[in-house]
Amino acid sequence: MAVVLSNVVNAASPPWLTTSDDKIKAIVEKMTLAEKVGQMTQPDSGSVKDLDDITTLSLGSMLSGGSSDPESGNKLSDWAEFYTERQQRALKSRLGIPLIYGVDAVHGHSNLLGAVIFPHNIGLGCTRNPELVEEIARITAREVRASGIQWTFAPSVAVPRDIRWGRTYEGFSEDPALVALLGTAAVRGLQGADLSGEESVAACAKHFIGDGGTEFKPGGGEGMLDQGDVRVDEATLRAIHLSGYPDAIKAGVVTIMPSYSSWNGVKCSGNKYLLTDVLKKELGFEGFVISDYNAIDQLVSPETDDSAPESNNAAGQVRSSDYKKCIEISINAGMDMVMLTDRYKEFITLLQELVEEGKVPMSRIDDAVTRILRVKFAMGMMDAEPNLWPNKKLQSEFGSEAHRKVARQAVAESVVLLKNENALLPVRKLPRRIHVAGSGADDLGMQCGGWTIGWQGDRGDLTPGGTTILDALKEVAGNTTEISYTADGSQSDGAELGIVVVGEGPYAEMKGDRYDLALSQEDTAAVAKLKAAGLPVVVIVLSGRPMILGDVADQADAILAAWLPGTEGAGVVDVLTGAAPATGRLSFTWPRSMDQVPLGHSGEKIENPLYPFGFGLSYE
Ligand code: BGC
Predict the structure, then answer these.
(1) Whose C-alpha lies nearest to ligand 1, atom 12?
(2) Which CATH architecture is the domain 6-112+147-395 placed in?
(3) Residue ranges of the domains in the chain?
(4) 54 alpha carbon to ligand 1 midpoint, in Å?
(5) Residue 497: phi, psi to the nearest 5?
(6) Which pLDDT tens digit goes with each residue over 383-420?
(7) pTM above 0.90, yes or no
(8) Is the predicted pLDDT of residue 320 greater than 90, yes or no?
(9) What is the CATH number of domain 401-596?
(10) Torsion-angle region of 399 (φ positive above 0: left; ψ -120 to 50: alpha; else: beta)
(11) Whose Cα sits closest to atom 2 in ligand 1?
């Protein structure tokens, strides 16, 4: 498929842009400074202990971060109630402006029990199928709106250049053009043809810009690439990392999140050239810019600030003590709304002070509020009868078979057949007995990866519904084939085929940065054991990035890269048995050894990789 990268600037009005600017102006004129700043404030629900704050501070938004679930539980009904209560509080504020409520529905409504979990973007990149990506995003939007929520911090349009980065799987590809193609499809699907529709959610292209191009931090350790520095010239930054944004803007994306990371030592969250000159002026972005989680806290040299830095989340982010300066820098740079935790009241007070002291111009505040209200108008949230409430019809479809069917198809299309000696696959007629092994064979959590139910994901049966690869094999086996299983590959005597599901346990940002991407010794030993037992061996790799296969690349008779397929493991088995064709093509170059990592930050290609970008075998 020809992939066209459009980096051409086009300031044409995005399709969602309504003619409500007069109405917005009238509202802005009525607002007090405190109300304006309230609109610009987005606390995590976990930090708002007193719900009256939503009303008295006229908060414009709230979010539930990766692990911020309703106290009552994590089912759809809990979320619908939780959201409704907060929205009702917002409507009681003086001007009654509704909250725009955000979550990380990055592969389905992935924080909720029973939601359909789709493959992470790295797998979708292998489908090369924008229509399918759009359909997945449409379904995600419907599952999100079932809970009442109307905003997701997705899609990531990162272009990861170093697969040691723990967010590699959030990117569609190492190829800027493919990222632009699929990122735009995701925006179209999430926002729908009519952004004010009951089934549409606001999308958020992230993380602007260069999140996937950071250099390895000296000393390594956790977060050794995450939130780091991108050290390339502007032409390279644009050629590689800007790719997803112009097309997403043209498709009408209403929000964009600046990256925690820096470009040549300057944090994107405080970079006026990037946020105002490039994003808003040059690219014509008219929606609003939302900061990353407490990202603005880092703007005043937090690394050197030893005045008792506190931890604000499980990742132990460092926070500056000169919060006021941080606010000044970021708002003046062009940040419109700030995502934060317990400092929300402090933020509101300090930003008002900055305006009163003339350090942040009122015109900047009015611009930010206008942008936020523009999105709320475009979404129909300001209509006389707005669609603000959890949708009953959509609730009945939440986690449905119809949604799972699309996810299963996406899984099958994302699987890449890397090796197939003696045409071992597809196994159209199952033998009398198959022995299954490996750490990932019966682990729904490992299939789903990070950003699933919790921030970092979890192992095991973390959500109801869905099928592990082992379950799916048992289903197709019926009564005629015996499926036996041991994680370590022992007790395979009498089997005629071995299937080993290897890979990585779940992780998300920071914690997923890894120096060495070798398979675990346990997985490698399981493959060796089945091989030594004389069986033909199929290896299925569950991972958020290419892994170093080592001897397994030789020992395996067939290899399938299944990425992080999500809840519908049956899609992997569809390819294994030939119920679905093998059509996936690598969205990333697959290196032979760690010496070939990283890819290079100026668009270099790896010489002689194990499998090149775009590689994938077919059955015919
Ligand atoms: C991540 C974002 C995410 C946000 C809200 C941050 O830590 O970098 O991608 O949208 O949290 O959960």
Answers:
(1) 65
(2) Alpha-Beta Barrel (3.20)
(3) 6-112+147-395, 401-596
(4) 22
(5) -145, 140
(6) 999 999 999 999 999 999 999 999 999 999 999 999 99
(7) yes
(8) no
(9) 3.40.50.1700
(10) left
(11) 292
